[in-house]
Design brief:
The protein contains eleven helices and seven strands. By secondary structure, it is an alpha+beta fold. A hairpin with a 2-residue loop joins β4 and β5. α1 runs parallel beside α3, α9 runs antiparallel to α10 and α10 runs antiparallel to α11.
Amino acid sequence: MSMIRDLRAVVRPALRKSTPVQPGYDHTRDPSASSAVVDCAVYRDGRRLQGTTCLTPRDAMRRVRSEGGFAWIGLHEPTESEFAGIAAEFGLHPLAVEDAVHAHQRPKLERYDDTLFTVFKTIHYVEHAELTATSEVVETGEVMCFTGPDFVITVRHGGQGSLKSLRHRLQDDPELLAKGPSAVLHSIADHVVDGYVAVAAAVQDDIDEVESDVFSAPAKGSPRGTDAGRIYQLKREVLEFKRAVSPLLRPMELLSERPMRLVDPDIQKYFRDVADHLAKVHEQVVGFDELLNSILQANLAQATVAQNEDMRKITSWAAIVAVPTMICGVYGMNFDHMPELHWQYGYPTVMAGIVGSCLYIHRALRRNGWL
């Protein structure tokens, strides 16, 4: 909260003046020191202006105001002090700034005056030789995007989701980039959703593998139900995937259907395609969750059936053993007068009766499928 109060104190005076002031912005930073600014450039008519490779955000906006075009500033995990000056320069809302610095936000679209604040969850598929009960299947990151009339500020969190290749692709398409900041916003959304599509295909392969293992004959000595840990872990990863996809449906719907002053009408048509791909991925992820529920239930049912089969076998052998136990128990009693106690053929007759009875019970149990 202290950060919000400080930013409000900075932003409000800045908005009242024609030239924004720069409190909190570190202009004396050592160029050799690590910086949150990954790239900062000015674009006009879809082309990157010469001499904008090493610009500071402040210098980039000066060129935009004097020469036109828009600035695109990329940052990676900025600190509060690093982002405070940029927030003041561009008049960013303190609440959006706090979200961008601290991350761990759900996907959303918010409008603050003349700025759109968009949060995307990036998903990366983690390659693994074998799926286990502790395997990490998906890794998440975040990309926040501030879109204004003449600037785009992207804030990335996590080791995945780099926008470097995306920037190069846009620079190779001046006609699209000439549409302004909304073209960059669309490209980021398209880039993120394309990542979802690729991850969904990889997760589908993992689910197919688990499903095949569950419904195939178990290896000798391997009991049923041992796949429950893998299924549950995969379900947790799918849930993480779902948390990234589901909340983004509404923002993409707004960007593709509701007219916005900051979104070029031609670009809005492209958002419809992104929204369509996102809806398809969402259906897949919901299907993954339901399918994993069914696979887990089937796996647990198989384990229960296997336990029942084991219990039937144990009960069957107990029934067979009960016959000699009963007969031997009778003849083990210490009585002087018992039938056939002193009979010459008593022992072989009893043994033959025990063997015959056990064979009969064994055959009957096998015929009924208990053994």
